[in-house]
Every structure is written in structure tokens, then in C-alpha cells.
């Protein structure tokens, strides 16, 4: 009898855990999503940062090793609060010597391009997001890396610079 | 008819106030209430419609965001199809196609979050085509498509790509339609709100205009009525002023006539008295001569009549002279201390032949030096002379006359002396009593019985008593007698006179100070007054001042506490004065 009770308890806990994970999947999964994207190779470059003759190429692990922080913002596309692990654009710009007056061009995997002065990006306190809620950002949700701005930024509701699936940052 | 009627004036004042006061009719009040309700409704509908509707900029914003999403969705679809085609051509690997597909999925997901709800209307055929492409990709090997598989996947892919492109167009049109519908709804709501507000605004303006003209019209009429009432009031005031001037002139004229009359009477009487005295003297001489020598029986009655009439005429002249003189006399002229008992005894001595002749007894007993007044000796003598001689004249032979003197003393008042002269004569009809002191008035029974007299004696008596600060009254019963009561203030000692003068001045000064003060320091005033009251023991004056202070406190902004403090201080002083008086009495 006692074994039956323990079994029933385990079953209830298991069912509740199953329901929880299902709910999590429902809230995070893209209902229009496709089959999983093939994993990248170990040496796949996901960000190219270039300024004049200086070109820096980053794999995901390279980016993960940079000094990062976490910020929580109200994500303007899905209109929810989300926490991102970020690297500041200021630091990335400085690493290749991008000056404030130069025009910076960000480009996505789907060839979406946004251009503006470096000082505008910096004044807007832009960040490169490399994780969301501690996990890698899926492609069908703007990953693997994207540009975001905090709630206090002047570009928090100006959505053009919010470049999804970022591929490169260069100077025109 | 009196030209001044205070009650009518008061009523007219109320009429004027009512005429000139601004009033709204019930209709105007109703219209005002409607205007107020409309204004509130206007505010509410403006608020509600502003919450429901959107501005032009908001509409553009709402169009812009979905339009951008539509463009990007179309772009991502084409990119996906392009990558898919490139994969089929062996140009890119499968992962590149999968990434393009993921970005399309991201776009489709995000467009739902824009609030346009287009995702719920997503073309199921389009989504099915995408799923077909996903399955196709899943069956393919990773990396670049090999040549031997290319034709196979190309054949399978062609209908899928065609379906994606075809349904993509339908999807875009669906998006566009959804956005258009939403914007149209917003515009309709906005226009409806604008129409309601415009209607309410027109309604409000109309009500305001009606109310404005109505109130203006009413106000103009009220103003005109008020102006007419004021004009009428001015006319009445001018008329009243003219009447007052006329009355003043008449009064001045009457006064001058009265003065002329008095002067004339005085002159004439003086001119009459001189020859009358001479005539009476010569008549007396003739009578004495006739009595000694050879009296002629026929002449004696004529001489007696002549003598009696001459004496009557002299009485009349003397009376008129007296009253004329009294009219021009002020109080207090030639006043001195008079012992009333002594004065009455002197009068009785003069009249003794008269009452002895008629066997009338006089009942009078009063101690000297007990009844002292301040007065004019001659005038007071005339009072007793007139009253006692009247009593003798109207008493039957053998009758009696009672004369009493009593000293009356009341608390906090100057003592006075009460004098009664009572006879048992013919009495006075009750209907004649009110006019008894009128000049030249003679009681009806006296006239009927042809008792001689001038009708001036009692008028002179009353005038003299009033000049001495006293009063006179009479009670009489026809056929049983008459009683005259005279009350004269007793002469004060030097100390009493000083206190009396101080009493008057204290009351006068205290009253004027309290009445004229700003009442901010009534406590200090009351203390000063209370000190004077306590020192002089003016209990009644203190109470009077308290009453005045109480009235002023009610009418003014004086705090109750201030009045009570003043009242308590004064009452305390009054109480101590009262105690001192009682102790002295013991």
C-alpha cells in the first residue's frame, strides 16, 4: 500500500513537471517555426567586426569570453520583459578603433542593414545580446546574436536599429 | 394727513430692493441646468471618444508598423524561397536555408505581437506550404545538395515553392485587408466621436445664446423697473423735502406768531392792568364814600357788579400775564430753597378771609424744615394759591379741605415730596379730566353753574410744576370732591447735589464711551466705569451700562468671553458697592 502511494506521488510530480516544461515550451517556442537549424561548426564565425584594415572575427565562444553583463528590458517585438546577457557596443567599437563620427553599418543574416553614426549607437547605449535568459538565442527568435537597447535608451522604441540575427558590424 | 409715514417708506424700500435685485426665472434656471448637463456630457463624451478614437498621427503609426511588417514578411518569404532555390542549385548548404526559414518564422511571430492579430488570420495554405518545405528539407542530407539528389528534390520542391509564392501573395493581401479594416474602424470611431462632440458643441452654443439673450432681456427689464422705482423714490424724496421745508417755514412762522402773540398779550395786558387797577381803586373809593354818606339803594348793586366784573377782568389779565411770562421762562430761574409747609401757611393766611367767610375748615398740619425744595417762591406760591382757592371756590359752605405733605424716598433715586390738596366739592366730570390743564378750558359743570373763572389757573399750575421738575395729576368724583396730587423733587444737600451731578456725568460719559468705543478694549472701559460706579455706589447706572454693553456685544463682533470678563468685573464692583451700602444702613 505504501509503495502504491509513493508511486502515485512520483507520478503526480512527474506529470506536473511535464506540464511545466510544456508550458515553458509553449511560451518560448515560435508557433511559425521550422525544424531545428543544423548546429554550427566549432569554428563558425557568427560576427565579423571590421574597421578599415582591422577585421575581427568572433565565434560564439569568443563572444562568450568577453566581459559581459545582464540587463532586463521590455522586448519591443514580442512585448515582454526578457533578460539578456550582453556585451556593450562601446567596447566592441573600441576594440577595432571605431570613432564616434564614423558611420557604422550593421548587417543581419537576411541582409537587413541599418546605418547610423557610431556616436548615435553609443549615445543610445546599445548592446550586443549573446544570450537570453542564460540560453542561446534561437534563430527563429532573433538569434544567435542581436542588437538591443535598454528601456532608458532613446532608441528603446525606435525599432530600426534593433538588428536581429546580426552578422557583421562595419564602417562605411 | 401726515406727510411722513415711516411704515410706508419701509415698504417702499423693500419694493425698490426687490425691483433692483437680479433674479433668474425658473425657465432660465432650467436652461442653465440643461447647459450645465450638456457641458458635463460634452466633457464625458470627449473623454470617452478620445480614449476610443485615435489621432491622425496614431492612425499613421498604426498603418506604418503593420505595413513595415508586411514588407518584411514578403521580403523574408522571398529570401527563403531564394535560399531554397540556391540550395536546390547546389549553391548553399541546407543550414543556410534553415536559417532563412527561421528568420521568416521570427518575422511571422513578431507580426502577431504588433497587435494587428494578423497571425490568427494567417493563411493556412501558406503555413502548410512552409511545413511541406520543412519536411522536404528534413529528408535531405545536411550540407550542399549532391548532384544525384538534385533532380529528385527539384521535382518535389517545385509545387511547394509555387504554393509558397502563391499563398504568400494571398497572405500579404490578407494582412493588408486586416490592416485596412482596422484603420477604417479607428477612423469611423474617431469620426463618430467628432460628430457627437460637434453636435453637443452646437447644442451648447445654442443654449448659451438663448440663455444669454434671455438673461440679457430680463436684466434689461429689471434694470428699467429698478430705474423707474429709483426715479419714483427720488420724486417722493424731493416732495418730502419740499414738504419738510414748507413745514419748517410754517413752524418758524408759527413760532414767530406765537412770540408776537405773547408780546402782544403781555403788552395789552400790561396796558389793561394799569387802568383796571385804577378803576378798581376808584370803585372801592366810591363804595366807601357811598357807605359813609347817603347810600343810594339803586346805585349800590350797579357799583357791586362793576366791582366784581372789574376784579374778574383783573384775574383774567393777571392769569394771561402769568402764563405768558411762564412760556418765556426757563427752568431754574430765581430758584432758592423753599419750605413748602411755610409757603402753604402763608397762602392760607392770605386766603383765610375766603374760607372763613364760607365756613370751610382747612385740615393742614406739617412740620417746618421737613419739606424743602429748590424753586421759585412766587411761582410755588401761585400754585398753592390757585389750587387752594379753587378748592374753596368749589367746596360747599361748611365743607372741609385737606392738605397733606409726605416725603417719599426710594432706593437710588432723589427723594421727592408728595402734596395732596383734597376737597369735598362739586367734583369734575370724568370726560373733562383729560382737558383739565388745557388753557381756557373750564369744566362743563362749572360753566353750567356760572361759577366765575378764567380757565387759566390749572394751566398755570401745571406749567409751574413742570418747570420745577415735578408732575401733577388729578382724581375726581362728580359730586364728591377732587384730589390734586403734586410731586416735586426734594432739594438736595450740597453733597447730594455733587453726587447727583457726578452721577449724571458718569452715566453720560460711560454710556458714550461704551457706545462709541471700538469694543476692542471693553474690559478696560468696564473696569474704569466699574471703579466709578463702585465709588459712587451707582447701582442702577452700573446695571444700565451693563445692558448697553450687552446689546453692543450682541450687535458687534465682540467675543462673548470679552463681554463676560467685563461683565464679571463690573458685577463684582457693583456687589461690593451694594455690600457697603447695606453695612452702612446697619
List the helices and strands and how they pair.
The complex is a heterodimer of chains A (172) and B (586).
Chain A: H1 2-28, E1 45-51, E2 54-59, H2 60-65, E3 69-75, E4 80-88, H3 89-96, E5 103-108, E6 113-117, H4 118-123, E7 127-132, E8 135-136, E9 146-148, E10 166-171
Parallel strand pairs in A: 1-10
Antiparallel strand pairs in A: 1-2, 3-4, 4-7, 5-6, 5-10, 7-8, 7-9
Chain B: H1 6-20, H2 26-52, H3 56-89, H4 94-116, H5 124-139, H6 147-292, H7 299-327, E1 336-339, H8 340-357, E2 361-364, E3 372-375, H9 377-394, E4 400-408, E5 416-423, H10 444-448, H11 457-467, E6 471-477, E7 481-489, H12 494-516, H13 522-536, H14 539-555, H15 560-585
Parallel strand pairs in B: 2-4
Antiparallel strand pairs in B: 1-3, 4-5, 5-7, 6-7
Q: What does this protein structure show overall?
A:
The complex is a heterodimer of chains A (172) and B (586). By secondary structure, chain A is α+β, with helices and mostly antiparallel strands. In chain A, strand 7 and strand 8 form a beta hairpin. Chain A is globular. Chain A has helices at residues 2-28, 60-65, 89-96, 118-123, and strands at residues 45-51, 54-59, 69-75, 80-88, 103-108, 113-117, 127-132, 135-136, 146-148, 166-171. Chain A has one domain: Oxidoreductase, molybdopterin-binding domain (Sulfite Oxidase, Chain A, domain 2, Alpha-Beta Complex). In chain A, the strands form two sheets. A five-stranded mixed β-sheet of chain A has the order 2-1-10-5-6. Chain B contains 15 helices and seven strands. The two termini of chain B are 61 Å apart. Chain B is 72% helix and 8% strand. With 586 residues, chain B is α+β, with helices and mostly antiparallel strands. In chain B, strand 6 and strand 7 form a beta hairpin. Among the domains of chain B are: 56-201, Up-down Bundle (Four Helix Bundle (Hemerythrin (Met), subunit A)), CATH 1.20.120; 332-489, Heat Shock Protein 90 (2-Layer Sandwich), CATH 3.30.565; 494-585. Residues 1-10 of chain B have low confidence and may be disordered. In chain B, helix 12 (494-516) packs parallel to helix 14 (539-555). Classes of the chains: A alpha+beta (172), B alpha+beta (586). At the A-B interface, loops of A face helix 3, helix 4 and helix 5 of B.
Amino acid at each position: 500500500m505504501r509503495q502504491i502511494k509513493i508511486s502515485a506521488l512520483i507520478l503526480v510530480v512527474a506529470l506536473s513537471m511535464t506540464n511545466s516544461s510544456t508550458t515553458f515550451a509553449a511560451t518560448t517556442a515560435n508557433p511559425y517555426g521550422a525544424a531545428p537549424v543544423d548546429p554550427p561548426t566549432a569554428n563558425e564565425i557568427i560576427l565579423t567586426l571590421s574597421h578599415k584594415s582591422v577585421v575581427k572575427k568572433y565565434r560564439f565562444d569568443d563572444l562568450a569570453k568577453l566581459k559581459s553583463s545582464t540587463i532586463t528590458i521590455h522586448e519591443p517585438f514580442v512585448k515582454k520583459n526578457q533578460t539578456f546577457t550582453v556585451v556593450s557596443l562601446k567596447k566592441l567599437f573600441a576594440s577595432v578603433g571605431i570613432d564616434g563620427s564614423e558611420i557604422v553599418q550593421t548587417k543581419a543574416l537576411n541582409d537587413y542593414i541599418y546605418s547610423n553614426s557610431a556616436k548615435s549607437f553609443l549615445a543610445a547605449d546599445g548592446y550586443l545580446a549573446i544570450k537570453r535568459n542564460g540560453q542561446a538565442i534561437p534563430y527563429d527568435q532573433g538569434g544567435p546574436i542581436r542588437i538591443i537597447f535598454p528601456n532608458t535608451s532613446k532608441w528603446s522604441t525606435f525599432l530600426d536599429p534593433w538588428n536581429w540575427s546580426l552578422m557583421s558590424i562595419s564602417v562605411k | 394727513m401726515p406727510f411722513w409715514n415711516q411704515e410706508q417708506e419701509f415698504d417702499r424700500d423693500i419694493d425698490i430692493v426687490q425691483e433692483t435685485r437680479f433674479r433668474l426665472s425658473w425657465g432660465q434656471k432650467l436652461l442653465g441646468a440643461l447647459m450645465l448637463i450638456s457641458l458635463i456630457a460634452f466633457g464625458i463624451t470627449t473623454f470617452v471618444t478620445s480614449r476610443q478614437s485615435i489621432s491622425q498621427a496614431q492612425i499613421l503609426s498604426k498603418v506604418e508598423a503593420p505595413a513595415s511588417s508586411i514588407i518584411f514578411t514578403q521580403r523574408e518569404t522571398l529570401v527563403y524561397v531564394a535560399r531554397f532555390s540556391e540550395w536546390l542549385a547546389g549553391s548553399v548548404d541546407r543550414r543556410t536555408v534553415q536559417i532563412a526559414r527561421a528568420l521568416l518564422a521570427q518575422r511571422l511571430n513578431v507580426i502577431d505581437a504588433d497587435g494587428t492579430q494578423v497571425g490568427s488570420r494567417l493563411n493556412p495554405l501558406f503555413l502548410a506550404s512552409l511545413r511541406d518545405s520543412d519536411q522536404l528539407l528534413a529528408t535531405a542530407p545536411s550540407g550542399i545538395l549532391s548532384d544525384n539528389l538534385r533532380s529528385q528534390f527539384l521535382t518535389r520542391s517545385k509545387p511547394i515553392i509555387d504554393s509558397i509564392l502563391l499563398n504568400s501573395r494571398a497572405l500579404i493581401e490578407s494582412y493588408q485587408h486586416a490592416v485596412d479594416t482596422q484603420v477604417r474602424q479607428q477612423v469611423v470611431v474617431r469620426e463618430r466621436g467628432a460628430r457627437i462632440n460637434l453636435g453637443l458643441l452646437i447644442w451648447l452654443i445654442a443654449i448659451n445664446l438663448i440663455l444669454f439673450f434671455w438673461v440679457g432681456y430680463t436684466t434689461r427689464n429689471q434694470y428699467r423697473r429698478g430705474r423707474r422705482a429709483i426715479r419714483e423714490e427720488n420724486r417722493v424724496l424731493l416732495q418730502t423735502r419740499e414738504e419738510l421745508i414748507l413745514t419748517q417755514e410754517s413752524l418758524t412762522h408759527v413760532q414767530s406768531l406765537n412770540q408776537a402773540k405773547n408780546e402782544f398779550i403781555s403788552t395789552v395786558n400790561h396796558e389793561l392792568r394799569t387802568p383796571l387797577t385804577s378803576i378798581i381803586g376808584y370803585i372801592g373809593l366810591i363804595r366807601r364814600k357811598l357807605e359813609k354818606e347817603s347810600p343810594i339803594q339803586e346805585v349800590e348793586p350797579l357799583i357791586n357788579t362793576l366791582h366784581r366784573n372789574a376784579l374778574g377782568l383783573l384775574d383774567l389779565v393777571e392769569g394771561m400775564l402769568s402764563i405768558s411770562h411762564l412760556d418765556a421762562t426757563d427752568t431754574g430761574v430765581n430758584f432758592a430753597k423753599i419750605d413748602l409747609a411755610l409757603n402753604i401757611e402763608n397762602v392760607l393766611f392770605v386766603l383765610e378771609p375766603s374760607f372763613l367767610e364760607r365756613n370751610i375748615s382747612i385740615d393742614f398740619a406739617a412740620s417746618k424744615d421737613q419739606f424743602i425744595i429748590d424753586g421759585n417762591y412766587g411761582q410755588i406760591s401761585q400754585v398753592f394759591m390757585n389750587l387752594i382757592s379753587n378748592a374753596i371756590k368749589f367746596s360747599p359752605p361748611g365743607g372741609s379741605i385737606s392738605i397733606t405733605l409726605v416725603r417719599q424716598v426710594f432706593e437710588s433715586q432723589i427723594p421727592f415730596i408728595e402734596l395732596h390738596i383734597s376737597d369735598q366739592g362739586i367734583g369734575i366730570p370724568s370726560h373733562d379730566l383729560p382737558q383739565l390743564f388745557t388753557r381756557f378750558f373750564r369744566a362743563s359743570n362749572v360753566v353750567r353753574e356760572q361759577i366765575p373763572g378764567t380757565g387759566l389757573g390749572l394751566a398755570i399750575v401745571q406749567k409751574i410744576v413742570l418747570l420745577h421738575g415735578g408732575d401733577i395729576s388729578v382724581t375726581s368724583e362728580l359730586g364728591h370732591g377732587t384730589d390734586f396730587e403734586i410731586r416735586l423733587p426734594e432739594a438736595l444737600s450740597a453733597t447730594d447735589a455733587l453726587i447727583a451731578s457726578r452721577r449724571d456725568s458718569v452715566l453720560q460719559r460711560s454710556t458714550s464711551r461704551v457706545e462709541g468705543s471700538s469694543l476692542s478694549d471693553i474690559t478696560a472701559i468696564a473696569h474704569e466705569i466699574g471703579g466709578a460706579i463702585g465709588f459712587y455706589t451707582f447701582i442702577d447706572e452700573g446695571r444700565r451700562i451693563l445692558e448697553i454693553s450687552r446689546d453692543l456685544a450682541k450687535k458687534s463682533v465682540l467675543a462673548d468671553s470679552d463681554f463676560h470678563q467685563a461683565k464679571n468685573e463690573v458685577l463684582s464692583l457693583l456687589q461690593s458697592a451694594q455690600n457697603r451700602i447695606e453695612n452702612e444702613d446697619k
